[in-house]
Specification:
The complex is a heterodimer. Chain A is built from 7 helices and 7 strands, in the order βαααβαβαβαβββα. By secondary structure, chain A is α/β, with parallel strands linked by helices. Chain B has 16 helices and 19 strands. The chains are: A alpha/beta, B alpha/beta.
């Protein structure tokens, strides 16, 4: 999976800046997407392209349980968030509805990847390749249940093993 | 080896799963509100599914309801649609709804406990991160997103990874619990462990500093567990818990036999092991005021704004975060907290809008008026809290001091209804989040206790409420 990076080199990006509360009344996902990241980066909507990835620091998606946050990012074209760590509700919201991939990275990837870099993510090997810089980093593998939900395409498509 | 309270509740709710792996967990109570449920009901309709246990599902409207006169129409059309949608969904799927005109309407995390819907040993979910509040009763209470809301509606279960267990011990005794409150305890905890300190864990709060607290104070503590990143926070139920729930509207008929069972079963064994541990001694803690844009950016009211270097202790991202926060908050390092002037005061939210919060805040007023430069509002957590407060005459105390006395809802905690800050306005708020724009675009939030908020309203700036002779 290839895409270009939009980098926010900071911790604690909360769901209130990803999609401010006043927009939680919007039912239409395309309209919701026009307000994605508005609380942090008013230029986000004009610069994001289909297939982009966001790179950020620790505790991405902290705060409110609003699933509108991954939905707004996903409908803006974002396919994955690469972050040092995630808040748990955002993490589950991202995979439950198959909106985007939350990928935990290490400091090497966080420091090595820059704004605009082209990245190739290979889930089968847990590898992140930086095509622009010709570097390779490891991603933290998904846990058993998260990997299965992602592979199935969300919690409503996931069928438990009867083992 | 013994088990923790969390492990006991977890294991007693496993439908499918291994002891330490992902499990399908049964959900005993599902609370829903107007904002995170509409897409879930759409999903049910699209897939021709029913609500599996409508009698375990309870709804109210709180996030975007106006807090002015309830006899007036809702002017914001999108809010009105969301409220009507919840009414229709509850009617179509047979779910009990406490609507905008119900005497039981209120913030979902206030009404669950006060109606006796929240019970020890149960699993409780809601599409709201502050569901952790219900953990004060020894329930495993988790905030979830809308896909999970739909999953629970249709199956009464959730696929969950077992979180780690985290013991937070609160030891000691506060010198004046009327001035240094549960809010100050939980802000102190978050200041110490950080906004990611609890990530992936269920916190059990223990120690004398916790058992000394009333149920309403315990709810304030558990409510803010999510602000440290924890999945949930809980407290072992005791006589305080059982007394609180006795005789409430939805308390089960066989209550006393349940109490006997809870007393025997719902406790952390003495030889149980926690995977993480933190201890806070509260003998000498001061009233807390947040200065930045996350709840970990908090200091004592007697301190000054830290510099980004002091705050970050060498961590570059923390330093950058502090610089950005100070810019947003328009504050200079070295400014004494007590010199910060405020424009607005909000006493409300699922953190601090229960009867006891309002009683304690009212004691600060002592027939004074709020500062002429301040606009202040009190938003009771529920209609029941409002009614009880009015029976005690609290509404008159607040109104005579020039506070606005409003109808119940989430209100200015999250800026979804007309109660918002204007850009640049600075607010002393009893809510739970000081994120950028949380209370309105460009608004600046300082998280404080109800007594600090009331005192700030009167003085126009923060004060050391320990010097007010509160009792």
């Amino acid at each position: 999976m290839k895409g270009n990076i939009i980098k926010y080199a900071q911790d604690n990006i909360d769901t209130d800046v990803i999609i401010p509360g006043q927009y939680l009344k919007i039912h239409d996902y395309a309209e919701l997407a026009t307000h994605a990241m508005e609380g942090l980066d008013p230029d986000f909507h004009s610069k994001v392209k289909e297939g982009d990835f966001i790179l950020s620091g620790r505790n991405f998606g902290c705060g409110s349980s609003r699933e509108h946050a991954p939905i707004a990012l996903s409908h803006s074209g974002i396919k994955a968030i690469l972050a040092l760590s995630f808040a748990r509700i955002f993490y589950r919201n991202a995979v439950d509805g198959a909106f985007l991939l939350p990928i935990e990275i290490d400091e090497d990837a966080y420091n090595g990847i820059s704004e605009g870099d082209e990245i190739d993510i290979t889930l089968s090997t847990n590898e992140i390749k930086n095509i622009t810089k010709n570097q390779t980093y490891k991603m933290k593998p998904f846990s058993e249940i998260i990997g299965k939900i992602i592979a199935a395409g969300g919690i409503f498509k996931y069928k438990p093993d009867q083992d | 080896m013994g088990k923790t309270l969390f492990e006991k509740i977890w294991e007693s709710h496993i439908v499918i799963g291994k002891q330490n792996g992902p499990s399908l967990i049964y959900i005993d109570r599902h609370l829903i509100h107007e904002v995170t449920s509409p897409q879930a009901f759409d999903g049910l309709r699209m897939n021709k599914r029913k609500v599996r246990r409508p009698n375990l599902t309870i709804a109210t409207m709180d996030h975007n309801v106006p807090t002015n006169d309830r006899s007036l129409p809702i002017l914001d059309q999108t809010s009105a649609v969301q409220i009507q949608t919840l009414e229709k969904n509850c009617k179509d799927f047979g779910i009990k709804l406490f609507d905008i005109n119900s005497p039981n309407q209120g913030i979902v995390h206030v009404i669950g406990p006060e109606l006796g819907i929240t019970l020890p040993g149960t699993t409780i979910v809601c599409g709201d991160s502050h569901t952790s509040t219900h953990g004060a009763f020894g329930a495993l209470a988790l905030g979830i997103g809308t896909s999970e809301v739909e999953h629970v509606l249709t199956s009464q279960t959730l696929w969950l990874e077992k979180p780690k267990s985290f013991e937070i011990r609160v030891e000691g005794k506060r010198k004046n619990p009327h001035a240094v409150t549960a809010k100050d305890i939980v802000l102190s905890i978050i200041k110490n462990i950080g906004t990611g300190g609890g990530t992936g864990t269920v916190v059990e709060y223990r120690g004398q500093g916790i058992t000394d607290l009333s149920m309403e104070q315990r709810m304030t503590i558990c409510n803010m567990s999510i602000e440290s990143g924890a999945r949930a926070g809980l407290i072992e139920p005791d006589e305080t818990t059982f007394d609180y729930l006795r005789g409430r509207q939805y308390t089960p008929k066989n209550y006393e036999s349940l109490v006997d069972y809870w007393k025997e079963y719902l406790k952390t064994d003495s030889d149980a092991k926690f995977e993480k541990q933190f201890t806070l001694n509260i003998n000498d803690i001061a009233p807390q005021v947040s200065w930045g844009t996350n709840p970990g950016m908090t200091c004592d009211v007697t301190e000054s704004i830290p510099s980004p270097d002091e705050f970050s202790k060498g961590d570059p991202n923390q330093k950058k975060g502090a610089e950005k926060a100070l810019e947003y908050m328009d504050l200079e390092p070295g400014t004494p907290i007590m010199d910060i002037k405020i424009d607005r005061v909000f006493i409300g939210s699922c953190t601090n809008a229960r009867l006891e919060d309002l009683i304690e805040a009212s004691k600060v007023i002592k027939e004074q008026k709020i500062s002429p430069n301040v606009r202040a509002m009190v938003v009771p957590g529920s209609q029941m809290v409002k009614k009880q407060a009015e029976e005690l005459g609290l509404d008159k105390i607040f109104i005579n001091a020039n506070f606005e006395w409003r109808e119940s809802g989430c209100s200015m905690c999250l800026g979804m209804n007309p109660d918002i800050l204007s850009p640049g306005e600075r607010c002393a708020s009893t809510s739970n989040r000081n994120f950028e724009g949380r209370q309105g675009t460009g608004g600046r939030t300082h998280l404080v206790s109800p007594v600090m908020a009331a005192a700030a309203a009167i003085k126009g700036h923060f004060v050391d409420v320990r010097e007010l002779g509160l009792s």
